[in-house]
Amino acid sequence: MNLLIDLKERFGFSTFRIGQRDVIESVLNGNDTIAMLPTGTGKSLCYQLAGYRMDGHVLIVSPLLSLMQDQVEQMKVMGEKRVIALNSFLPFKERKKILRNLSLYKFIFVSPEMVMNPNILEKLTSLKFCLFVIDEAHCISQWGPDFRPDYMKLGILRNKLNHPIVLALTATATEDVRSDIKKTLNIHSAKEYVYSIDRPNIGLMVKPVQNHEDKLQKLLEMVKMLKKPGIVYFSSKRLAEEVSEWLKEQGLLKTAYYHGGMDQEQRILIQQQFLYDKLNVICATSAFGMGINKENVRFVIHFHMPTSIESYLQEIGRAGRDGLMSLAVLLYCNSDEQLPLQIVENELPTDIQIGEYLKIKMNVKGQMNDQLELTDIQERFINYYWNFFKNRRTEDSSSLTQKLINIRDGRTQYKKDKIAEFLMWITGQGCKRNRLVSIFEENELETRPNCCDWCGLTFEQYESKEDTNLYEEDTSWQEQLKKILLPV
Ligand SMILES: [Zn+2]
């Protein structure tokens, strides 16, 4: 197999990144494959290149709308027009049209809750899929922090699609999670390719601060001093905006904010400006970066702590994809863990929401979601378990409610434990890198330069020598943007 020619012609690269070749070859040899590749190694290239070499369609299940959209746009930029995303945000008419012409698309992205929609399922089962890709496959497992009940149905979907080859991709999955992936997808003899989660070129730092003011000052100092471009992550949309504006006022003119609450065009605009170095600091929520292939991100700073080590790794993994020295800094102030704890507490439905929603379902009074003010995640949670216990609907609503409350409590506790684990990592003693790999059951690493603050890493090593904060007008990115926004 001369995969290198494909790699050069289709993607313009002359070498594979770690793991890519093994994974592609495994799929092309007809094996169901689980690939755990560190973030930033180009997982999507694996299914794209393999897909091009196979006859039939490629189905990609992806958990997040923005991620899906980013990937579709990126493939379009690379010249692939036969790519489409089916998600609940498609207007009805457009969805119908796409479904009618679905066989024209080689790469079909779909969200997990959409695949079970009878119309879509019927259409999908009429196509011949050569490859069934599950992106962020750790969402299958209850032992993963991003567990998505909808993912549990993917095994059934695979049966209905007549058992195409499975490629399950993830960046972080412990052994328990990988065994759950196998079980759910019924791919017991799958080949596993597991690579270290460690990214040696990213220096790890935790910077303790006194309070919010101090945090802002430290952030400003760092952003001014460090080599750019860089990303600053926030857990709050409002703060991402405010701090971005504030940094601009402080002279960092090439700063902008990005979060999921912005409309798509705006988001693409910011992404493109960042990609083409018109912006060099992005204040963002976790929505930023997933599908963005920017090689030279020099730093990732966390203003807030994410809800798990897995999310943290995913986000810092956007730095240093070119293999050059990069830095990840987490700003930590006492009791910063309160914010992720709050997020986790509010993520799943309350007792009342569960009870009322189930009553409505049982009496078939029609939907009243507006009054219950359920978020997407909350509604999905209840719906999933409602369907799950479908055959036992002889139960009264209060015992079913209690069941769901127990499940929710279990999930919430699990997530709180993940935060506690992360907090231990932040505040604990010893080499940060070694403590990180040990969480993922990997062997201890040898000491190496630019490791972490515990091993003597300092900011000075990442200092920028030139002033790159001034904005200059250039229109090349606008041309690029036009290309992306053009319809298929
Ligand atoms: Zn270290």
Give a concise summary.
The protein is an alpha/beta fold. It folds into three domains: 3-194, Rossmann fold (3-Layer(aba) Sandwich); 202-336 and 452-483, Rossmann fold; 346-451, no CATH class.
Form type: globular
Mean pLDDT: 88
Fraction in beta strands: 5-15%
Instruction: Determine Rg (CA atoms, Å).
Output: 23 Å
Class derived from helix and strand content: alpha/beta
Q: Quick one: biggest sheet?
A: 7 strands, parallel
Assembly form of the protein: single chain
Ligands (ions, cofactors included): zinc ion
Tally the helices.
19
Give structural notes.
There is one protein chain. The protein has 488 residues and is an alpha/beta fold. The protein has three domains: 3-194, 3-Layer(aba) Sandwich (Rossmann fold); 202-336 and 452-483, P-loop containing nucleotide triphosphate hydrolases (Rossmann fold), CATH 3.40.50.300; 346-451, no CATH class. Helices cover 43% and strands 13% of the residues. It contains 19 helices and 13 strands. The protein has helices at 3-11, 20-28, 43-52, 65-77, 92-100, 118-125, 154-160, 175-185, 212-225, 237-249, 264-275, 309-316, 338-347, 351-363, 369-372, 376-388, 397-427, 432-439, 476-485; strands at 33-36, 57-61, 83-86, 107-110, 129-134, 165-170, 191-194, 202-209, 230-233, 255-258, 281-284, 299-302, 326-333. The strands form two sheets. The chain has a seven-stranded parallel β-sheet, with helices on both faces. Strands 8-13-12-9-11-10 form a six-stranded parallel β-sheet, with helices on both faces. α7 links the parallel β5 (129-134) and β6. It is globular. The two termini are 32 Å apart. Zinc ion binds at residues 431-433, 451-452, 454-455.
